[in-house]
């Protein structure tokens, strides 16, 4: 397993260098890479994909959903520029992998999944594996988690046609929002939105990506 982890970390580092002209980052922080190394991805994929868990690509997790490519997980995590005392909101729990990475970097992770079966399995998996600072609920992610707001960072792991207004409302001054924006199954761009201490918003495109769509409601 150590060999597999070293290999995937090397591939993440290579992708970071390859995309640096777009992302503005030719490497990711040591703390992010250590978190990526510490979370066993094979524990977050279905049994039939265990042998592919340490490939640098997305994998199906059922319900027409995927676990993101490790490089994209590392990039989105790095863009948040987390600190240990922070509280982060994740939209799209999936199998819980991204939340597990974040849990090693911040005080609390609040994660919303619209599919009840995925939400419950992720909740149980994260608790069993000891990620006790991750709070999972089944709900409409586009509405955020208002009673727990504001958040120091918000990460969205599904593509929206536009940034949901409630998420902007729940972003704290100085906070960062990372979200893929684009058409359903069409061209998408990963966006970074920063709220200044004064409350102003600054948006920039980071990288072309491909995510499953962000859908309203819960199932």
What would your notes on this structure say?
The chain is α/β, with parallel strands linked by helices and 219 residues long. It has a single domain, classed as 3-Layer(aba) Sandwich (Rossmann fold), CATH 3.40.50.150. Helix content is 30%, strand content 26%. The chain has 7 helices and 9 strands, in the order αααββαβαβαββαβββ. The strands form 2 sheets. It has a 7-stranded mixed beta sheet. A hairpin with a 5-residue loop joins strand 7 and strand 8 (188-195). Helix 1 (2-18) packs across helix 4 (70-80). The longest helix is centred in the N-terminal third of the chain and has 17 residues, at 2-18. The termini are far apart. The mean pLDDT is 96.
Keywords:
219 residues, alpha/beta, Rossmann fold, two-stranded antiparallel sheet, 7 helices
């Amino acid at each position: 397993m150590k060999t597999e982890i070293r290999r995937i970390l090397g591939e993440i580092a290579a992708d970071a260098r390859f995309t640096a002209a777009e992302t503005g980052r030719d490497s990711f922080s040591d703390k992010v890479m250590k978190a990526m190394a510490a979370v066993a991805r094979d524990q977050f994929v279905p049994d039939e994909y265990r042998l592919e868990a340490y490939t640098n690509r997305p994998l199906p997790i059922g319900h027409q959903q995927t676990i993101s490519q490790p490089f994209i997980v590392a990039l989105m995590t790095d863009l948040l520029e987390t600190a240990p005392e922070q509280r982060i909101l994740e939209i799209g729990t999936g199998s819980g992998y991204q939340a597990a990475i974040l849990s090693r970097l911040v005080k609390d992770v609040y994660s919303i999944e619209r599919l009840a079966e995925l939400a419950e399995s992720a909740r149980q998996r994260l608790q069993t594996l000891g990620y006790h600072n991750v709070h999972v609920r089944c709900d409409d992610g586009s509405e955020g988690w208002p009673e727990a707001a504001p958040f120091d960072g918000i990460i969205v792991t599904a593509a929206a046609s536009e940034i949901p207004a409630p998420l902007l409302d729940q972003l704290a001054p100085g906070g960062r929002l990372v979200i893929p924006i684009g058409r359903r199954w069409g061209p998408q761009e990963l966006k970074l939105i920063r709220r200044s201490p004064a409350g102003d918003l600054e948006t920039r495109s980071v990288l072309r990506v491909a995510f499953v769509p962000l859908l309203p409601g819960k199932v």
